[in-house]
Amino acid sequence: MASSSFSSSSSSIQPKHQVFLSFRGEDTRLSFTSFLLQALKDKGMSVFFDEEKLEMGDELSQALLTAIAESQIAIVILSEQYASSSWCLRELFEIMVRSTKGLLLIVPIFYHIDPSHVRKIGGSFKKSFDEHRRKKRPARDMQRWKDAFAKVGELKGCHIKGGQSDRSEASYIKTIVEDVIKKLNSKSSIASEELVGVDDQKERILKLIHQNDTRVVGICGMGGIGKTTLAKAVYKEVSPQFTDHLILLNVREKYQKQGMEDVVKDFLCRVLNQDASIDIPLSDVIIDRLLNKRAFVVLDDVSDSDQIEDLGVQHLGPGSKIIVTSRDQQVLRNTDAKIHSLASLNKDDSLKLISKFAFKQDHPTADFQDVLVKLANCARGLPLALKVLGSSIYQKPKEDWESLIVRLREYPERRVFNTLKISYDGLDRLERNVFLDIACFFKGYDREDAINMLDCCYNKSARSAITKLVDKCLLEISRDYFDSNDTLSMHDLLQEMGWEIICQESEDPRKRSRLWRLEDIRLLEDDKVQTFFFFRVNKYKYLCVYLPVKFIIRYFY
């Protein structure tokens, strides 16, 4: 039998469908099954549904066998005439084989039948099997079908009795869909490679969401810090609690590529489950429909608070919850969000995450331990950098790892650099200049001292620029433990990005706008210096050298 050989060799097939529907067409195709199918699709699930159910030949088609093998959950709708179909019984046998091997979850639905009749093969089911015997079906097949049928009857499932005393089928479908989502969540290895150091963060977000007075939760942090990964993890856990839920990724990028109207129309059509286009600005009818929606929405990578207003989530009904991820704290403040800021991973989690990508396991092998620690240190706890570096050395010899470490001292990893530079590109000219000045000269300095000196260069505008850089997660203000002064702090990879931006100005250091390395400054010894400015702050003396299109700051003890 072709199906049996397939079952024994398909354990390595990757899931393509989240749900496989097994049903008796003439019993439920145009009623319960069609409504269940639509409800599953409305939740964004991939469902295999055999439209025709053509019972051709004695064997299941290879396509159907493959569909079963590529599914994560099988919903078996056991109706009165289910066992009368040899096709359905062959399906059920394959489903039970994979379930026994732990390759497939089963959700049985006992539709207008007595579950005990399935377990004991009684009632109309006994008549169906007697009819198969009369048609002289192979004895081996008959025994397999009976065993599979009896076993599925022993499983815990949904019993829809029918009749006026029972609850509505719509209510049952809602319960079934929620159960399927929970099973998928428990089965899924969602970002198992990425979810390192996320559990504590996720619990904090969940606590905020479950507060009655919380409507919008903001997740803030620099590029590559893990905002989207955290939002996805929360979405998977919270979405089953809402009839309507949606995640919109890369809002900033979609606005740039598609334009505001297309993004808003597509988003609202998905929220309202309609195919017809929606006019902008929103009509009173659309707003009223949104007000009747209790929804859970995630808006990822929002760069402007106007984008949130455009998408109309402020009109969602009572009990709705919204998560917004952004690199800009001010965007989140403008929405009255409760803000959760992400920090870099600690050393242990950094090593674990890079190991998952470099070795496909939680910990490095002993002979690679030292070099992997060095490489993890290059990422400075940034999840994106850890993933990129770990992936780049997968199955590479140790010599390549060591060479990469040396290269990173001079040249940043391109994918990480481009991700971080998105925030820099969104700055105005003043903010860019102040960012580069701090990256080259003022990191670790007292904030007020730095502002006093930078004000001389930017007409007393440095303070507002620094505030904007803090909001955009390009700069941090830390408190000195000993003297309680506010200190300018910046993630090492952001500082290195600033250095790279300067280096890209020219191959000749003398033609760059800023110099901070002694070997580059020495190249200026033959140049004529136009003006010297000295600033004395506490025990430091700062030497500012102005040349045409150059701004150099050094300090001496």
Descriptive notes:
This protein is of the alpha/beta class. Helices cover 48% and strands 15% of the residues. It is built from 26 helices and 15 strands. The strands form four sheets. It has a five-stranded parallel beta sheet with strand order 2-1-3-4-5, sandwiched between helices. A hairpin with a 2-residue loop joins strand 14 and strand 15 (550-556). The longest helix is centred in the first third of the chain and has 19 residues, at 169-187. The chain is elongated, with a radius of gyration of 31 Å. The model is unreliable at 1-13, 52-58 and 528-557 (pLDDT under 50).
Question: Can you give the helix content as a percent range?
Answer: 40-55%
Stretches where pLDDT falls below 50 for ≥5 residues? 1-13, 52-58, 528-557
Spatial ordering of strands, largest sheet: 2-1-3-4-5
Tell me the total number of β-strands.
15
As a percent range, the share of strand residues is: 5-15%
